[in-house]
Amino acid sequence: MKLKTHILFLLLLVTQLLSAQVAFTTKVSKKKLGINERLRVDFVMNSEGDNFSPPAFTGFTVVGGPSQSVSHSWINGKRSFSKTYTYILSPIKRGKFTIKQAKIEIEGEIYKTIPVTVVVVAAIAKPKDPNDPDYVAQENIHLVAEISNTSPYLNEAITIKYKLYVGSSVNVSNFNPIDNPKFADFWSQNIDIKQFKIEQGTYKGQDYKFVVVRKSVLLPQKTGKLAIEPLTLDVIVNVPTNRRDFFGGRQYQAVHQKVAAGNRTINVKPLPEAGKPASFTGAVGEFEFDVTATKTALKSGESLQATVKVSGRGNLKLFELPKLVVPSSLEVYEPEHKENVRTNLAGMSGAISDTYTIVPQYKGNYPVSKLEFSYFNPKTASYHTLSSIEHIIEVLTGPTNTNAVNQSNNTSVTHQKVVGKNNQFRSFHTSSNLVATYTTQFFKSTLFWNLLLLPLLVIPGVLLFQKKKKLIANDVKGNKIKKADKLAKKFLSEAKRNLNNKDAFYESLHKSLHNYLKAKLQIEATEFSKEKITTVFEENKINADTTINFVSLIESCDLARFTPISSDAMQQDYDNAVRVISEIDKAL
User: Fold this and answer.
1) Is this prediction's pTM over 0.85?
2) Confidence of residue 373 (pLDDT cuts 50, 70, 90)
3) Which end of the chain is more exposed for a tag (fewer CB within 10 A), N or C?
């Protein structure tokens, strides 16, 4: 009989221990879905935790969440608790993807979920319902890529504008790129758009509003047919519903719609071989060419600068300048390359230059030969060649180069070492101010005694520091409060950085407020309710207006997960959070 009693007791104990174990799992709405469908992901735990960290959701775009739900129940005197973080995901492309591990801290321990694999297949046909918000958004949102020239020459600048067309029955509150084109066979540069401008236009014969969401300048680097990858946007579209608000105004439902500009192809023509000059190095556009010198008469040992410069409009960053050619008796240093180039919708414009430093060593006259620069003008479909004038460098004084033979005809550039002469550096004047140095004995010096006494001062300080560190480590409650205070500041800073991202902003703001209450008033996550906050604030004699404002911020964080919020509203909530936290600090 005793044996049966012991066995029964052990079974009850094991059952109790198993029921007390922490469970943290991932649940998905489906393991296989079409690219035009959405996936619901739930992270479920049976104990309250802090600092939840979701995975990266590679291959998906988060279009909803995170939303939280908490469930409490008592069955036969036994408490059951469940908390769920829910995300709504939209796949970016087809393939097999893994929902990686989420993390959360429960009672000082870090728990992780088991990864879940889902498969995204081709789009699944859906019935067209004129009352379906997704269908209405799809019919009223279009992204179009407009190309300035679909048959350019090699290295000729073209522009591409991405226009987002919006029908009159809906409006757009936000859009974000989810797949940017790579432009692999082009030199490319995006043009900054400081402010989006709404314009009127037509799409397939219908009147639409449109906004240019991106501008890019492309210079093709290969000939033949080149593909331009599409830009894909995730657009938040506000679709009207049949519901009315308190004042009779029509209510809107926010839906996410993915739109792509579609693949485009351009045919890049090669530059003609007929008439191509020998001095052509790949310049395409309209240019001017010049070679200048800072002086033409100087003494031996002095220096001058010669500049080779090309200015105009074209592919200024994609060709080489002609090399300066001078007699071998002139010492020439490697040129300093400068670029003053700006890029706009018309392409590159500005100037590039190479500046050479030249130092003559011998007396005489030295010619700087003419240089030629050739470019191709796509407007006239022809080559042009420009020539510089010949410069004569006159060296007035210095030794005579007895080894020079016909210097005027020796036009090779040399980068040789300068041969020294007795009076070569006569222009450099030096002076010295010598000061006697004395050596002092280290033994029994001030430094000696300081180093000798230093350990006697350091050892007590180290002992005190270790004692204080041990006391701090043993203060579990204090360390928990400090950690929560640090996290509150961290998440408040994250909220400020995420003012342009609604979901991330309100998630960080909610974590900041939660950790602040945990640090300052020891309110745990299980007690995080409007009634508990109000009671604790009253006990600590915190102003009623401050209490109302704090609770209002918590409600804003919950409401923002399901409704569109403007950037001004987010900025206002952030400012309110800073002000309310400051007021609570003063009251405490």
Assistant:
1) no
2) very high
3) N
